[in-house]
Specification:
23% strand, single chain, FAD-bd, flavoprotein, FAD-dep_Monooxygenase_BioMet, monooxygenase, FAD/NAD-bd_sf, 386 residues, FAD/NAD(P)-binding domain, eight-stranded mixed beta sheet, alpha/beta, five-stranded parallel beta sheet, D-Amino Acid Oxidase, Chain A, domain 2, 14 helices, 2 domains
């Protein structure tokens, strides 16, 4: 069999666009099919850790990203009840030194725009919008290819082409997202840091978005109310009451911040169980289509970017696409499982209460910043295998 020359990618989000650019570097032509008539990336802020920024740099995108993001000096963990710092992880220049790549925060739409501009400049990439894809046959009838890549997100239609793939399910957590202008922000929010405030059954993350001069605020709490499938929506009065109730024991300044939030969007958090990602022949799922995860490790976008890079590396020069896809799945499954475990640990630690929370705070207070950074070497120092 000859090496693959053409790929069809379903989905023009972060996973699909990154995959197209990575494949182009290997000389593989890709045709991206997107159901939306116009490309508008939803969401708010996004953290790009060094394991992902290293790949984006290799794709020649770092200058464009650096003009749009900020590189916070520290990642802080703070108490939601007292606002006192509990621990600090060096970022900024320290991230570039330790992990040889930057740690940046930006609006999701800004990353999407950079990727989209690069795809439109790349002669080996074609993008077609307003294409509703329900089956693998739909995709391949429009754009015949040697390999079909499902990058169509947590509600993937391409999953039906992969025997053993499992549908997404509600995680039991809801995220509320809104932007807060620097000028209107309370003094406990620092535009030079990413800060996670921790509390019982909930946590809140705040970080700066340099382009818009706003803070991205994400408040995550546990909720037994299983919402309907779908993306962001304006929560009703009952949902808003559950949000405020989840933060009822927190510092009054944070409660006021949430109470005053203008039109926050509610995002029910769905995740994918550990199902199959490839049919072992010519179809593979990447990003959220394969392994959607909750944001407790802030690695959803990074895992999609890693997927894209490894898949391109493995397809380059391949003579047996099915075997390559199976090897890709095996390699990525181990990595994603470890990231999931880190997210589960963070969820437990961030939402701890009572004696467990007191023990967490004590342990964090005894850890040096460099020691906390070393705990992330396996994650942020990751380099894509050939």
């Amino acid at each position: 069999m000859s090496p693959p020359k053409f790929a069809t990618i379903v989905g023009a989000g972060i996973a699909g666009l990154t995959a197209a650019l990575a494949l182009a570097q290997k000389g593989i032509v890709s045709h991206i099919l997107e159901q939306a008539p116009a490309l508008e990336e939803v969401g708010a802020g996004l953290q790009i850790s060094p394991n992902a920024s290293r790949i984006l740099s290799d794709l020649g995108l770092l200058d464009a990203l650096s003009a749009r993001w900020s590189e916070p000096g520290h990642i802080l963990l703070s108490s939601g009840s007292s606002l006192s710092p509990l621990a600090s992880i060096p970022a900024g220049k320290a991230a570039r030194t330790r992990w040889c790549a930057p740690y940046g925060v930006l609006h999701r739409a800004a990353l999407h725009a950079v990727l989209l501009e690069a795809v439109r400049r790349e002669p080996l990439c074609t993008l077609t919008t307003d294409q509703r894809i329900e089956t693998a046959q739909d995709a391949l009838s429009i754009a015949p290819a040697d390999v079909l890549i499902g990058a169509d997100g947590v509600w993937s239609r391409l999953r039906q082409a992969v025997p053993g793939a499992l549908p997404a399910h509600y995680s039991g957590n809801v995220a509320w997202r809104f932007l807060l202008p620097y000028a209107a922000a309370p003094p406990f929010l620092n535009p030079r840091t990413v800060t996670a405030f921790l509390g019982p059954q909930a946590h809140l993350v705040a970080y700066p978005l340099a382009q818009t001069q706003t803070f991205n605020i994400v408040a995550i709490h546990q909720s037994a109310e299983a919402p309907p499938e779908g993306w962001s929506r304006t929560g009703d009065a009952a949902a808003r009451a559950r949000l405020l109730g989840a933060f009822s024991g927190w510092h009054s300044d944070i409660r006021r911040l949430l109470d005053d939030a203008r039109e926050p969007l509610m995002w029910p958090l769905f995740e994918c169980p550990d199902g199959a990602w490839t049919d072992g022949s010519n179809t593979v799922l990447i990003g959220d289509a394969a392994h959607a995860m909750t944001p407790f490790a802030a690695q959803g976008a990074a895992m999609a970017i890693e997927d894209a890079a490894l898949l391109a590396n493995r397809l380059a020069g391949a003579t047996d696409v099915g075997q390559v896809l199976r090897r890709f799945e095996t390699t990525r499954r181990d990595r994603v499982a470890r990231v999931r475990s880190r997210g589960a640990f963070n969820r437990f630690a961030y939402h701890a209460r009572g004696p467990i929370a007191l023990a967490r705070n004590l342990v964090l207070s005894l850890r040096r910043p460099e020691s906390l950074a070393a705990d992330l070497d396996w994650l942020y120092g990751y380099r894509t295998p050939d």
